[in-house]
Design brief:
The protein is an alpha/beta fold. The chain has 7 helices and 6 strands. A hairpin with a 2-residue loop joins strand 4 and strand 5 (about 150-155). Helix 1 packs antiparallel against helix 2 (about 40-50).
């Protein structure tokens, strides 16, 4: 794993907004007395949901809240790649899968769109709206190529459909996630090809059965 460091540009302070403070209390309450430090990952995630990334002042606040050494919280934040350690785009954090199944299905074209539209990987765009990075497999291989944008998966992408997604996010829209070709789950393109007979699962083909040695229902 590459070394992950905090951004050299840090805010002066961090506080949870009121709605997130309630979530902080809820998460801490999930753990028994003396085990509150187990909430470190949920609290860091709340930081990221509020700010888009995890800053050094936020790490210090989480450590203070949970009674942990700051270095322990820093270790967690830098170990898990789900935590962003520098400011990301205000409109979209784009994570493009570059692993083999997506590469075979055209992720290189998606990455080229990112380079042209957003700029170098792991940096914000000039207008501050976008940030992109190439990541390892995110488990949607059947619907490759795909990208995670903010909290959702966008699958069965082409360069054209991906460009349209970026246009929508730039305009402040929230495009519906999922397959861009209308695929149902991980079914084949065009729809399911097996188990298509409704009688297989609606109960209409069921027949009465006799269970051997079943006790009589008649009263003794």
């Amino acid at each position: 794993m590459s070394i992950r460091r905090l951004s050299p540009n840090q805010p002066d302070s961090f506080t949870f907004r009121p709605e997130f403070q309630a979530e902080v209390k809820r998460w801490i309450a999930n753990y028994p007395e003396g085990k509150q430090q187990s909430a470190v990952i949920p609290l860091l995630w709340l930081v990221q949901k509020q700010e888009g990334w995890v800053s050094e002042p936020a790490i210090r606040l989480v450590a203070e809240t949970l009674g942990m050494p700051v270095i322990r919280v820093l270790e967690v934040a830098t170990f898990y790649t789900m935590f962003m350690l520098e400011p990301v785009g205000t409109h979209a954090l784009v994570q493009v899968c570059g692993t083999t199944p997506c590469q075979l299905r055209g992720s290189a074209e998606i990455i080229e769109v990112c380079k042209r539209r957003i700029g170098p990987h792991d940096h914000r765009s000039a207008d501050g709206k976008f940030y992109w990075q190439e990541v390892e497999c995110m488990g949607a291989c059947a619907n490759a190529p795909m990208a995670a944008i903010n909290d959702y998966y966008y699958e069965d992408l082409t360069a054209e459909t991906f460009e349209k997604l970026l246009d929508d996010f730039a305009a402040g829209k929230k495009p519906a996630p999922g397959s861009m070709i209308g695929r149902q789950g991980a079914a084949p393109e065009g729809g399911p090809t097996t188990l298509t007979d409704p009688s297989l699962y609606d109960g209409s083909a069921a027949k009465p059965i006799t269970i051997p040695n079943l006790p009589s229902k008649e009263p003794a």
